[in-house]
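Re: the 322-residue chain
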Amino acid sequence: MLVTGLLAALSCVLCCAMLLLGNTVYPVREVIRALSGEPLPGVSFAVNTIRLPRMLAGFFAGFAFGVAGNTFQTMLRNPLANPNVIGITTGSSAAAVFCITILHASGAVISVASVIAGFAAVAFIYFLSRGKSFSVGRLILIGIGMQAMLDAVISYLLLIGAQQDIPAALRWLSGSLNGSQMHELPPLVVTVLIFAPTVILLGKPLSLLELGEHSAATLGVNTDKTRMALILSSVCMIALATATTGPIAFVSFLSGPIAKRLVGAGFPNAIPAGLVGVNLVLAADLVGQFAFEVRFPVGVITGLLGAPYLIYLLIRMNRRGE
């Protein structure tokens, strides 16, 4: 409870910073007046049209990535089994790039295509991993193969796409909060408010699934139904978050392990993982905006954080013989 409270307090501080900081730093009083609907020249537009949608997109996308990534890693008992590695976000990305470079679409079309492709990717991976019985190792290997194939599709689409569409596709692929608009956020917000509590309520069966398929079944868990509910809830959040902000690199990969180290083993950490995801996204976006002469998308900063951790994790797993 202490760790969760501290993470929530840090999230609030970062949310306030997102609203206060920009090309012009506004006083707290003026920001509050603008948020309450009082028309203030310059302030109302900057806060309500640019900064507030950006902050909300980062908050809910970060929470979705964090909860969903932690769910996959816990359920499949492998830190590599997160949506970035096993091809779910790559399916959404391939659909988005296809819409941008081939169909020249934007907005709602990209979002819908990303969601559908995310579900199609996870259904295909899960179907192939079933065999006679469900296998975690099989799912991860098939997911990695799926990711490699979809990455090749994305590269091909970028090669054949019109020159004027490439920058938009690359911006989307990098994962960015730039250009977030209020009318795009309701699907993501509603999805997180529905499915995050579902994952949280299934925290105890999820913890039992971490013991293994047979142990969880012996302890009374309906493994197939529980796993299906967790996968559907997580994929819904991942797909909508990816459709809204693009695939923000490594947030779903880092949130679970960081939350587990902070909270400790044996405690439910879905909410802490979600809050870690929020803090990673908002902090990375602030760093990308103000720490360098050139502004970087949030996905570039999280990628710089996540890549060394992935190398460290692979080295550690190799030494343990996992």
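The chain has one domain: 2-320.
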